[in-house]
Amino acid sequence: MKIVYIYDSIARIGGTERILTDKMNYLAETYGHEVYLITSSQGNHPLSFPLSDKVKHIDLDTKFHLQYQHPFLKQLRMGWSLDHKFEQRLKKEITRINPDIISGNTSFKADLICRLDCKAKKVIESHCAKTYTRIPENRKKSFFKDVKDRYVSCQCFREIKRYSDAIVTLTQEDATMWGKDPNIHVIPNTTFIIDTHTSSPCEAPRVIAAGRLTWQKGFDRLIDAWDIVQKRHPGWMLDIFGEGFYKDFLTKQVKDRKLEHSITIHPFTQNITQEYLNSSIMALSSNYEGFGLVLIEAMSLGVPCVSFDCPFGPSEIIRDQEDGLLVKNGDIQGFANAICHLIEHEAERKAFGKSAKENVKRYSPQNIMPQWEMLFHKLTEK
């Protein structure tokens, strides 16, 4: 089977990029499919995650991000030109490859992908929950930009529902946002560190958090909660791993709260596995999620999680009071209390970690990837 994935670039260290890369590698190496990655603007930037030699990478050299360094009217002209160039080059590659499956993402040209005139079945993945698609990293928009993005999103979603052969969401909650439709499927993310036999002993006085430094991830809420935690447990440390728009804001918040001695903001690391193993609690403070990949990563290494019960994902991953703790979304005091509870109850913390490692096996590649294989075969047999 020939499968084509279309994405803008695998250039940043993020959950979507990691999952996409792992999925393509698995389909090529384990199932033996002929897999292609078509990017619009990878350029000379190295891939964020290692891509199998069995996956063929094609870059169309249409760098959409360059238009935003120009004045508004030139942006429009350049955007139209890039759109046209991208569409023509993409059609040429699709004709040459003649794939059975084309997979796109709601965040990049999904409406165009759905309308491609070819035999391939079109699968659109909703990695960012439908409700929160097109929200910028700083969450700030002008009135006209907000109206434009809402209109574009509505048009795009309408095209996806009309022309795609399958819409795949990561959670049941996001699936309901798309309405009742037989073409909507729920296939959660997987993580390839889930098979490790190594677990955190959950003894280090350390809480870990990871993700892009954006409004979505809510690290400002975590710092507010940690201000409460460190007063009760001054010997514990909070380590945040991530980069992004809010870095200076969060660094200032830590300094203003005089928490430099107990909070460190680190850049992304390629060895996040070891950082989980050196931690006793994982904290997820997001305002919303598409899924919550960091939760299953931490749980697979025996680290219990404390998370806001935000949309979308945590409540479907964490089994409250069994392998982690869910806190009402936005309840800073409750979040701090939950962290303190696990700090103060070591035996319970370790028991949660063991349960987490066992419960999260439902997200193993052996359980998740056959769902993709089944979907692809079902679509191509129609």
Automatic annotation (TrEMBL):
Organism: Phocaeicola sartorii
Pfam families: Glycos_transf_1
Key word Transferase present: yes
Name of the molecule in the record: Glycosyltransferase family 4 protein
Higher taxonomy: Bacteria, Pseudomonadati, Bacteroidota, Bacteroidia, Bacteroidales
GO MF entry, a single one: glycosyltransferase activity
Keywords, sorted A to Z: Transferase
InterPro entries: Glyco_trans_1 (IPR001296)
Glycosyl transferase family domain span: 203-358
Signal peptide as annotated in the record: none
